[in-house]
Design brief:
Blueprint lengths: L2 H4 L1 H21 L8 H9 L3 E2 H8 L3 H13 L3 E6 L2 E9 L1 H21 L8 H21 L7
Antiparallel strand pairs: 1-3, 2-3
Length: 152
């Protein structure tokens, strides 16, 4: 094995890039991209959220979140309304049209996850997910211990 094949960072990064490319292609049919997913996940679980809360949930920097929200609002994927508790803030929620797409979005992601794990025997897939999550949790803790903020 070459050094690059032994690099956890390289392998995880490369795998994530391939999955993201496939997700972008498939979600495009629904008028979405993989960049929208953290926001869609958050707003599917919560009726409405402020930009700051969305950025924290998705572990995305504020300027990137602001730009993504602006594009999603323009594309009528989300809607913005004033926050009744904070006049300086807005609350974001999914549009009715986007909520109707949720089953198709979840199916697309589920199919992609199945394809990504296709190379593993079915009985090893839950263990792989747990192990991958354990690696991520450990590395996020390391980033936090170093004084940083993990980005997803």
């Amino acid at each position: 094995m070459s050094e690059i094949e032994l690099s956890m960072g390289y392998l995880l990064h490369w795998g994530a890039r391939v999955i993201r490319r496939l997700a972008d292609r498939r979600l495009k049919r629904l008028g979405l991209s993989a960049a929208h997913l953290p926001i869609i996940y958050a707003l599917a679980e919560n009726e409405a959220m402020a930009q700051k809360a969305l950025a924290a949930y998705a572990s995305i920097e504020q300027p990137t979140m602001a730009a993504t929200l602006t594009r999603m609002e323009r594309d009528k994927l989300i809607e913005r309304r004033p926050d009744p508790n904070d006049k300086r803030s807005s609350l974001f929620s999914l549009t009715a049209a986007t909520r109707k797409k949720l089953p198709a979005i979840w199916r697309t992601i589920e199919d992609l996850n199945d394809e990504a794990l296709h190379g593993l025997p079915e009985n090893q897939r839950p263990q792989f997910r747990r192990q991958l999550n354990a690696i991520i949790v450990a590395m996020e803790a390391r980033v936090a211990a170093d004084g940083g903020k993990a980005e997803r």
